Structure to design on (104 residues):
């Protein structure tokens, strides 16, 4: 039982180390689920050389989210399915011509 547990831990660390090694380090180290998403977006934006555009697009969305109660209510509404929200965001991203890093 102990050998199986140790093997599982080694296998898991090997599988995540490759993905982490491909990410670009952020200027500020962040943690948790939010940190993982922030690091992934930062890494994708840096690799595609669209960091400023992604920052502007995310800032614009944040402002719209705070100012428009309908937008906020839509995304916080638990009765709407995740797939419906995802499809709607894809359509919005296409209409606004967002960069691939932001749209993803």
């Amino acid at each position: 039982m102990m050998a199986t547990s140790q093997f599982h831990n080694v296998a898991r660390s090997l599988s995540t180390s490759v993905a982490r090694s491909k990410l670009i380090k952020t200027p500020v180290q962040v943690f948790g689920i939010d940190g993982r998403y922030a690091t992934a977006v930062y890494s994708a934006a840096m690799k595609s050389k669209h960091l400023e555009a992604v920052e502007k697009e995310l800032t614009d969305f944040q402002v719209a989210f705070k100012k428009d109660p309908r937008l906020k209510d839509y995304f916080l509404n638990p009765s709407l399915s995740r797939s419906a929200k995802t499809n709607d965001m894809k359509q919005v991203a296409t209409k606004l011509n967002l960069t691939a890093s932001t749209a993803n």
Q: What stands out?
A: The mean pLDDT is 82.
